């Protein structure tokens, strides 16, 4: 490694390249901040509109003395038919999400240019950006892959792709077993991600390219912790020969700025943050149900109405975060009738801070990986309501493996928008009661959830499993030049 005058080694320089989705961007930035807290010079490559989503987090970290910054590159909106500023899956209509994927393929040139210009010591890039493996190889630096999901869903998806067990059933009502896993996992065909339900060969080819690029990387950095997924690290290595480093839950290691995590630096975000925390401060300990379905969920108006009525009928104070895109679904006079018994927040809410508040006793979630992990980290029991992608798989971790959650209902469920059935208010209320009350079984679930929450907090502390995982990864990056030079000498 290069040295400054006086033979002091210069700090490692690592570039981080997140995908254009809020659920990918926030944990990647958190990981960059963890690197910076260890003295690594961290640079996040990001497009202009996405930079606004992380600017507060980056600016606060830099102001505290951490060596972290952003480096901008253009987003090809016009080339894919998106309006200026539409640079994130969460900011476009559901029908336009494929355009964001198409745009990502057009960013390879900018990634290549910036990596060659600045020549960092390593690059941590989202799995979507397969080309960074070959760029890193040319630059003789390691590429570390980042998935926005944990190793449990990675291994389940790997088994589904490798073994195709869903082809063994002929209908949507009979389950099948996913083989090659440390725990028994049973699924139904409608719960599968779109790409496994489709015969689209282009999707299969794209997945193959991503897997090939990942195989050429140093390994995978994981936003999770060994105490819930170590068996799946072993499984991943056994079947894919992939090395992994647990560094999470990264939401717990953000220097105390939980209330600003993931917020744009605007007045509405500040107002929402203050609104949520002020309301929670008035509530009794462990009395509140928090309901949030991520930045990309889409419910029908009928489902939103049933959800509203179900939360009300459950009889517990609730804080519910909804998309800020119209209120035609809201039952007439709903909020006025609630008064202080419920709070509906439009747009963004400080989820990590809310989940960590003493007033919150349960979490209704769509089972995006970040939300699942944040719920586990907060020691809360959950009501699971998966909607799309790998969310039905994530649900199985907390319901069947960890035992900290219950399903919103046991009826027909699907990742396909057109197949979804409306979950009635009574079912919503019954599920909420299982996590907030539920007798002896409910108390057992709450105790188990608290235990996993303590394990999560211990993992990121000095000497914890994830703290040491990050230490090992940084050490490997630091030793990379010696490894490469040793290989060159051996083949000379």
UniProtKB/TrEMBL annotation:
User: PROSITE patterns of this UniProt entry?
Assistant: UDPGT
The molecule here is called Glycosyltransferase
Q: What's this protein's family per the entry?
A: Belongs to the UDP-glycosyltransferase family.
Gene3D superfamilies in alphabetical order: Glycogen Phosphorylase B
State a single Gene Ontology molecular function. Answer: UDP-glucosyltransferase activity
Q: Which UniProt keywords apply?
A: Glycosyltransferase, Transferase
Q: Respond yes or no to whether keyword Membrane is given for this record.
A: no
Q: Does the keyword Glycosyltransferase apply?
A: yes
Its EC number(s): 2.4.1.-
Q: Output the InterPro entries linked to this UniProt entry.
A: UDP_glucos_trans, UDP_glycos_trans_CS
Organism, by scientific name, is Dioscorea zingiberensis
PANTHER family registered for this protein in UniProt: GLYCOSYLTRANSFERASE
Q: Report the enzyme's class at the first EC level.
A: transferase
